[in-house]
């Protein structure tokens, strides 16, 4: 699996709209054939901090996601609502779901 | 759901042992009745950087996890292997799995 974990700090006045945009992106991304998860999380300590946890079957599937209308819409919509540039960290899986992941 | 995302930077000479310890913790935590996920991820850009993505049904379930023998063993085992203190961020869910999460 290929996992992208994106931390976003949102300007307080745009949090409600950001959540709506994130939900739109999450719901549409979950319909992509090679998307496995798209969890939208909110920090317990900082209500303006969010984590998007996106899992794709392959790195290519993530690249395909970045070409979708819903991703491009999300990217453009939220660009000015962030208090700082979003931080995306890309990963491979060691253990995922209920089992170890063979390492390449 | 209650989600704990822990970023760990491991000293290079301890990475192999860290992975073993993380797998032990993940496998045992998945057997806890109120654990939903325990993904162990490795950064694509920095092979010494890991993300533990832990999902519990409730905050209390996470507190219970922290009392288990496998958690305490993990915590003690890896303490000296980290290049810097681990960074744990606790979250509630806005969208999880295949649907929106009712907000309390």
From the structure above, extract its key features.
homodimer; 104 residues; five-stranded antiparallel beta sheet; 5 strands
**Average pLDDT value of chain A?**
95
| General shape of chain A | globular
Radius of gyration of chain A: 14 Å
Say what oligomer this is: homodimer
Give the strand line-up of the largest sheet of chain A. Answer: 2-3-1-4-5
CA-to-CA gap between the ends of chain A?
A: 11 Å
- Sheet having the most strands of chain A: 5 strands, antiparallel
**Hey, roughly how much beta strand do the residues of chain A contain?**
35-45%
Give me the number of helical elements of chain A.
3
Unreliable residue stretches of chain A: none
Derived structural class of chain A? alpha+beta
Can you count the beta strands of chain A? 5
Task: Give an overview in words.
- Two copies of one chain form a homodimer.
- Chain A is globular and about 45 Å long.
- The first copy, chain A, contains three helices and five strands.
- In chain A, strand 2 and strand 3 form a beta hairpin.
- Chain A is α+β, with helices and mostly antiparallel strands.
- The first copy, chain A, has a five-stranded antiparallel beta sheet with strand order 2-3-1-4-5.
- In chain A, helix 1 runs antiparallel to helix 3.
- The mean pLDDT of chain A is about 95.
- Chains A and B meet through helix 1, strand 2, strand 3 and strand 4 of A and helix 1, strand 2, strand 3 and strand 4 of B.
- Strand 4 of chain A pairs antiparallel with strand 2 of chain B.
């Amino acid at each position: 699996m290929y996992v992208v974990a994106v931390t976003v700090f949102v300007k307080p006045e745009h949090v409600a709209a950001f959540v709506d945009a994130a939900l739109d992106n999450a719901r549409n991304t979950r319909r992509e054939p090679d998307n496995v998860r798209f969890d939208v999380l909110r920090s317990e300590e900082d209500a303006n901090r969010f984590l998007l946890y996106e899992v794709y079957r392959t790195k290519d599937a993530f690249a395909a996601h970045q070409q979708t209308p819903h991703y491009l819409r999300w990217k453009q919509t939220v660009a000015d609502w962030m208090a700082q540039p979003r931080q995306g960290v890309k990963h491979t899986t060691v253990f995922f779901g209920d089992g170890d992941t063979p390492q390449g």
